[in-house]
């Protein structure tokens, strides 16, 4: 039997441009739908530079009453800097101040990373 060739050329997939703002909205919506508590500073122009875009916390309630916060254990707290992808498929990069905060948080044993639209952020929020 003759060898069959694919009727199309295989190419490396192109990254879809996505602004940081659109990506952030998607992450927050996804996280809320899966029970994560989300914090984002709306206007950071009067704050220290570099603090991560999002702080996310996942709870495990020990009490049958979801309104009883005294019996709640937080099983995960994530600090995430979000970056978009430009029209050329290039990932945004953290600033020096953002890198310093991420390094500082990681040095204290906390989970602090950068997420891009093409990273595995959905798996981390399940």
Fold and architecture overview:
The protein has 3 helices and 4 strands. It has a domain at 20-38 and 50-60 and 71-124: Trna Endonuclease, Chain: A, domain 1 (3-Layer(aba) Sandwich), CATH 3.40.1350. It has helices at residues 20-33, 96-107, 121-124, and strands spanning 36-39, 54-61, 72-82, 111-115. It is globular, with a radius of gyration of 19 Å. By secondary structure, the protein is an alpha+beta fold. Residues 10-14 have low confidence and may be disordered. Strands 1-2-3-4 form a 4-stranded mixed β-sheet. Strand 3 (72-82), helix 2 and strand 4 form a beta-alpha-beta unit.
Helices, by number, come to: 3
Query: What portion of residues belong to β-strands?
Result: 15-25%
Q: Tell me the major beta sheet.
A: 4 strands, mixed
Strand order across the largest sheet: 1-2-3-4
| Helix/sheet category | alpha+beta
Task: Name the CATH architecture of the domain at 20-38 and 50-60 and 71-124.
Answer: 3-Layer(aba) Sandwich
Total strands: 4
What order do the SSEs take from the amino end to the carboxyl end, as H and E?
A: HEEEHEH
Q: Gap between N and C termini, in Å?
A: 46 Å
Helix fraction by DSSP (H/I, runs of at least 4): 10-25%
CATH topology of the domain at 20-38 and 50-60 and 71-124: Trna Endonuclease, Chain: A, domain 1
Radius of gyration: 19 Å
Averaging pLDDT over every residue, what do you get?
A: 84
General shape: globular
CATH class of the domain at 20-38 and 50-60 and 71-124: Alpha Beta
Low-confidence stretches: 10-14
